[in-house]
Amino acid sequence: xxxxxxxxxxxxxxxxxxxxxxxxxxxxxxxxxxxxxxxxxxxxxxxxxxxxxxxxxxxxxxxxxxxxxxxxxxxxxxxxxxxxxxxxxxxxxxxxxxxxxxxxxxxxxxxxxxxxxxxxxxxxxxxxxxxxxxxxxxxxxxxxxxxxxxx
Length: 151
Prior knowledge:
mainly alpha
C-alpha cells in the first residue's frame, strides 16, 4: 500500500474542501434571504397594485352584467393607448409589463397589446422615435408593431 507524500492530500484540506465548507456556510443564508425577499415582494392584500389593472377590473366587472361587456385585455389595451398619447410609449410599456405581472391571465394578450402600442407609437411619434422606446416586453412585440406600421 502506497501512502501519499503530499500533506494536503493526506489531511483533506485542499482548496476544494475549503470552497465546499464556505459554500456550506453561505448557501443556507443566501437561500433564506432570497426566500424572505420573494415572500416580501408578493402582494398579499389581494388588490392589484397597478392603476391600469384596477381600471380594467372596474370597467369589466361593472359592465359584466350587461351584454357585450368588454374583456379586461381590451380595456387595458385602450387605457394604455391613451397613456401612450398622453405620456410616452415607455410609460405604457412599463404599465403593460406590470399588468401582466400582476395578472398572469393577461399574458396571452400581451404580444397583441404590445404590437398595438408599437403601431400607435409610429402614428404619434414617427418610426424612428417610436423605435427608440422598444424593449423586450412581451417578446419584443412592440418593436414588431413599429416595423409593421413603418412599412
